[in-house]
């Protein structure tokens, strides 16, 4: 007789594999076993304190998202419940912008004036300064190490400021301006992961800074256009950084996540971990390239191609797409001359470009030098991410979990929730202006001016190193 031989006294047994190996479980007896099991003695964690709503700055703020295909201006304020209320918005087609850069100053100025004016009229308030997105000037993301001897005494505010100044000096390079200086963490002697080193006693203080800079001439051009529009630059924020501020939950940023902002002229990404922005990148491909592909293949206008992409486009073919027939006007033909094509033809043009864009994103993440930090969840946002079927395609190509991202706790956006992903950058800029910047400890770097005090100080630090 074996252990598995049934008897009149014992129920039949079956083997079931579990985390602890094989065990004999009575057939039909699982419920009794679970009910009779002695409860484990577990010490639970203390309950979390109820989080308080975010405290915003007082006042009304303005944000301007200068995109390749559209410009958006939001005017709003922070509410006591932690949300953002949009008081007025302007939303117009962009002119004078290509791949995020200003290529025609007069056209860009006219578009900015019209967009901001529309928002001011809706909000019944005039804005003198705005927070603007950074997508021009070939933005560059780098990690900079800085160290400062302390000599066994207590770290003071002045020590932290000198450490940051040293890092900024090391990051400075001719022809480029630093836009973000973000401390990722501090090291007190050999102890890493210090959030605030002030008050610690140590021999040496060190930090790693995430620095984002841009071409100086592009910044001067942007400032000139804003001045011509009678506006001041109140702040400059990397576009994917702003989108991340709008669409990510705090815990998501802490666990590790990548935001992919799919715009009209560019696709940009921002990697967050432990609540910090640790990497950004920009790819010069966006939704406008899909529109041009459709227009070229079908010999139709850009306007018609955009409508086809928006209303009938998808990132992958469906079972009924071959049977759905579309009427498409052709360039150079009469209005009555229409080509009849299946929807599958439009999608067959879109799919390769979408896959190429996502493969470039994957390449950028795999080659960012971040290791496992770049392997977390991916959140797609931006107008071009609204393509039907893009989430499963992105999941397959990026080999990472993917979800769609829309602005959180922002009320009064131009579009309904279904299309609000197209306003993620603008919503993040408005939140940044209202006080979200305090979560990241961004240290604004003054613009180096020829012969100025800052430039001489930077030179002194660099020569010393």
Automatic annotation (TrEMBL):
Subcellular localization, as worded in the UniProt entry: Cell membrane
Keywords: Cell cycle, Cell division, Cell membrane, Membrane
Principal place of residence: membrane
UniProt domain SHS2: residue ranges: 61-247
SMART domains: FtsA
Mode of membrane association: Peripheral membrane protein
Keyword Cell cycle applies: yes
GO cellular component: cell division site; cytoplasmic side of plasma membrane
GO BP annotations, alphabetical order: FtsZ-dependent cytokinesis
Keyword Heme: no
UniProt record similarity statement: Belongs to the FtsA/MreB family.
SUBUNIT field: Self-interacts. Interacts with FtsZ.
Known role: Cell division protein that is involved in the assembly of the Z ring. May serve as a membrane anchor for the Z ring.
UniProt-recorded name of the protein: Cell division protein FtsA
Origin species: Gluconobacter japonicus
Gene name linked to the record: ftsA
